[in-house]
Amino acid sequence: MERTAENKALHAANSAAELSSPSSFETLIQVDASRFLPIETISAGDSILVAGKDLKWEKRTVQLAANSLNIPRNTTSMLISYGNKQLAVPLDQLLLLSNGELTRASKLSLTDTLSDANGNPITIELFQIGNFPHMCSNIATSLRLEDANLSGHLFVLNGVVCGDYTLQLFYKDR
Asked: Which sequence spans correspond to the domains of the chain?
């Protein structure tokens, strides 16, 4: 049964109380076709899997990796729940929607669907803004936006296509 916006909102409100409070939400970044690593372990010079909006994936070398010194940050962020997974991201994190558009985490709605690495929709079951402990890493494989496809500026975190730090800084919301 497909949920209406009202049913999703009710489900979200009821589910909020069911969320556990782990000490830190693990954030895994995809580094090749079958391997994910904790984002805080990535350093400049490492390779990760990246794409543009066309979702043609390739390995590229990380140019910038500024992490939170392996200490979970407890800052205002967005906790997104989908399937049996969760992703905690900064409010200004760019996420790829299944329709090919980018949106900041703070602008998500329960009617949005996120994109997986193949462009398949990921249904958001719940999202909350709060102080969620998570690893904060600013990662980029290029420090310039070179084309409209945003080549090399999208990567996969916990199964969701997200924008890199360069994109987060320079992408103009539409």
From this structure: 5-170
Q: Residue 157 is encoded by which pair of tokens? A: 């975190």
User: Is domain 5-170 annotated with CATH 3.90.1150.10?
Assistant: no
**Residue 47 contacts residue 62 (beta carbons within 8 Å):** yes
pTM (two decimals):
0.82
Residue carrying structure tokens 């709605």:
109
pLDDT: is 172 or 100 the higher one? 100
Residue pLDDT, tens place only, 76-120: 888 999 999 999 888 989 999 999 999 999 999 999 999 999 999
Average pLDDT, the chain: 82
CB-based contact 92:105 (threshold 8 Å): yes
Output the DSSP codes for the chain: -PPPHHHHHHHHHHHHTT----S-B--EEEEETTEEEEGGG--TT-EEEEB-TT---EEEE-SEEEE-TT--EEEEEEEEEETTEEEEEETT-EEEBTTS-EEEGGG--TT-EEE-TTS-EEE--EEEEEEEEE--EEEES-SS--STT-TT-EEEETTEEEE-HHHHHHPPP-
